[in-house]
Amino acid sequence: MRVLAFLDGTLADPDAAHIRVDDLGLLRGDGVFETILVVDGVPRELRAHLDRLARSAAMLDLPEPDLAAWERAALAVIENWRGGREIVLKLLYTRGADGDPAGRPTGFALGMEVDPKVLRARAEGVSAVTLERGFTPELAERAPWLLLGAKSVSYAVNMAALREANRRGADDVIFTAADGSVFEGPTSTVVLAKEGTLYTPPSSIGILPGTTQFALFRGAEKRGWSVKVEPLRVSDLLAGEGVFLASSVRMLTRVHTLDGRALPDSGAVHAELIAAYEAEYAS
Amino acid sequence: MRVLAFLDGTLADPDAAHIRVDDLGLLRGDGVFETILVVDGVPRELRAHLDRLARSAAMLDLPEPDLAAWERAALAVIENWRGGREIVLKLLYTRGADGDPAGRPTGFALGMEVDPKVLRARAEGVSAVTLERGFTPELAERAPWLLLGAKSVSYAVNMAALREANRRGADDVIFTAADGSVFEGPTSTVVLAKEGTLYTPPSSIGILPGTTQFALFRGAEKRGWSVKVEPLRVSDLLAGEGVFLASSVRMLTRVHTLDGRALPDSGAVHAELIAAYEAEYAS
């Protein structure tokens, strides 16, 4: 099941061709995106995702997105969904076709089923490897043209890193700096649980501000957890009670093995945190 | 004038939609490309471009491209071109549509007119600024998942760097490392002329091997120039007789101003080098 909607709310066949060959999103990776989880018809953190889309667009000097139109497209997908309980809802926004005389950006919302691999990762956790990202934590502020922390569609490196993890027999990646600083996963935010406190690195080091991580921290605080946004090192991850990868669709995935080393069983902490996260969406 | 051909040699309307919304080239920047200059029906360095397409594809773990099919598509564009003397011929190859049950990669050749801005840059040269790329020269060998030196379509940073140059009142960019090492331009190879020798940095530092730079060095050697592929520093660029950006479509563009500082007039050297380069294609 797939549902495709454009920004005016009209639906279209998701299996048909809708994009020109000279779309700059395709030719140059010149666009931004969001992936939203919809459960029982309710999009999670929709406002945060839309705001982040606008933030990424600004970092790429794209025209300011009309967030009302984006919300309309998202809701059109949800209203017309006839598939499972959950929808993976992608918003994609590019600079548009190079040869389009009107110079219009490209934008659409695409609803898809959850990949069975995601369900397995949620249930069983993942093994991860640390891979160097090549950047230093100070770089994002110094060099905004590197688009560190923008959710651009130029994700070839993120995809290559996941393939490298697979080659090493692992499921996922935690990007690091040469000095051992923890950045993020290719499609997730790193969260550490230690002695009643949740930690995540600050987005100022050049990583994406995590919508799911933010919702988790909000929910966990209500249940007595402390939360801290501060730099982490790989050695910190080995010294806690749980390392997690937060992302919209996988929610909070346990990392059970890091660089081939088994981490302490974080099942109980995971259950507690998932309850705190889910409580944010209980009606 | 535009001409679009697919890998089986069939032509299609370049202004129609041919790409699905879930093409991984669009969603993830997960693809590679080449840009070839065609003059009077003759594609320049076609074999080198096809080989580099295959090299980039291997770096991204894409299926090995059928180079005979790519050549066929390129020639189909050239044969059906009814525009100006020169064609900008783009080859684009992506992992294909996520939801395509056949799992076929996407591939096409697109012929376009030369942008008037390019003609101006060829004639008048450009001003450039150095911008930090964030990587160190040793990284490419250590971290192949960063795809340094692959011509992937994940070019959002390259495009953002050019916009940053424009904001600074310049036309183009030379990417550098924090230690002052020279990498490449966002869409070009850096060439320095000094005392009868041409210099360019080695691709092993994580930059694209330049097809035009290679052809230039080949032609220049025949005319008595020495050529050296070795690391360069920004200070070297300021101490030579000419700094050039080599790229297929702009050929060899003079950098007349670097970081706001006028470089020595390289007009005579430029004319000599262009003659050496053009002689490679004289019939």
Q: What's the shape of chain A?
A: globular
- Enumerate the spans of chain A where pLDDT stays under 50 for 5 or more consecutive residues: none
CATH class of the largest domain in chain A: Alpha Beta
Radius of gyration of chain A, in Å, reads 19 Å
Annotated CATH architecture of the largest domain in chain A: Alpha-Beta Barrel
Mean pLDDT, all residues of chain A? 97
Beta-strand share of residues of chain A: 25-35%
Q: Largest chain-chain contact?
A: A-B, 58 and 58 residues
- Output the structural class of chain A: alpha+beta
The CATH topology of the largest domain in chain A comes to D-amino Acid Aminotransferase, Chain A, domain 2
Encode the helix/strand succession of chain A as letters. EEEHEEHHEEHEHHEEEHEHEEEH
CATH fourth-tier homologous superfamily of the largest domain in chain A: D-amino Acid Aminotransferase, subunit A, domain 2
Tally of distinct domains of chain A? 2
Total strands of chain A: 15
Instruction: Indicate the percent of residues in helices of chain A.
Output: 25-40%
Describe the largest sheet of chain A: 8 strands, mixed
Ends distance of chain A:
26 Å
> How many helices of chain A does DSSP assign?
9
EC number (chains A, B): 4.1.3.38
Family (chains A, B): Belongs to the class-IV pyridoxal-phosphate-dependent aminotransferase family.
GO molecular function (chains A, B): 4-amino-4-deoxychorismate lyase activity
Protein name (chains A, B): Aminodeoxychorismate lyase
